[in-house]
Design a protein that fits this description.
This protein is mainly α. 64% of the residues lie in helices and 0% in strands. The chain folds into two domains: 87 residues; 32 residues, no CATH class. It has five helices and no strands. The protein is extended and about 90 Å long. It is found in: Nucleus, Nucleolus.
Length: 167
C-alpha cells in the first residue's frame, strides 16, 4: 500500500493494490505431485544406495583410526543406524516382492477364469513366519532363535504364576 500522510484525511475511494498471496503446498499431500509408487521411487533414487555404501565404508575406516572414545561411540552408533536402515530397506523390498508375486498369481488365475482369492492378514503373517523359519534353518541359526524364544516365553509365564511368598 501507498504511504500517506497522517495529517491528510484518507479519501473515500482510495486505490488499493492487491498482492497475490503465495500458496504453499506440501508435495506429500498434494495431488499435483502425483501418486507415490515405491517401485518407481526405488528405481529413480537407486544411485543413493551406492553413495550410502561409500559413506558406510568411510565411517568404518574412521572407526578403525579413531582414538577418542566419545567420537568412537558416536561413529559406532551411526554405523549401527546405517546397517539397521539397510536391513529394514531389504525387508521392505522382500515384502513388496512377495506381494507383487501374489498379485501376479491372482491375475493369472483370473485370466484362466477362476475367482480371485485374497489372503487375510493372519495368513500373510503365517507365510512370513514360515519363510523366516526356513531362512533361519538355511543359515543354521534356528536352534539359537528357538532357545531365545523359549526363554522369553518362560519369563512371561513366570510373571503370571503366583510367587512363593504368597504360598
Amino acid at each position: 500500500p501507498l504511504e500517506m500522510s497522517a495529517k491528510k484525511s484518507v479519501p473515500f475511494l482510495r486505490q488499493v493494490i492487491s498482492v497475490t498471496k503465495k500458496v504453499h503446498r506440501d508435495p506429500r499431500f498434494d495431488d499435483l505431485s502425483g501418486e507415490y509408487k515405491p517401485e518407481i521411487f526405488m528405481k529413480t533414487y537407486s544411485f543413493l544406495d551406492s553413495i550410502k555404501k561409500q559413506e558406510k565404508e568411510m565411517i568404518q575406516k574412521q572407526l578403525k583410526k579413531c582414538q577418542n572414545m566419545e567420537q568412537k561411540e558416536k561413529l559406532q552408533q551411526l554405523l549401527n543406524r546405517m546397517t539397521q536402515q539397510e536391513q529394514a530397506q531389504k525387508k521392505q523390498q522382500k515384502l513388496r516382492e512377495r506381494e507383487l508375486s501374489l498379485k501376479r498369481q491372482q491375475r493369472e488365475l483370473a485370466k484362466q477364469g477362476k475367482k480371485p482369492f485374497f489372503l487375510k492378514k493372519s495368513e500373510k503373517r503365517k507365510l512370513e513366519l514360515a519363510e523366516k523359519y526356513a531362512e533361519l534353518k538355511r543359515s543354521g541359526k534356528l536352534e539359537s532363535f528357538l532357545n531365545k524364544k523359549r526363554k522369553r516365553n518362560a519369563i512371561k509365564d513366570k510373571r503370571h504364576l503366583p510367587s512363593q511368598k504368597n504360598l
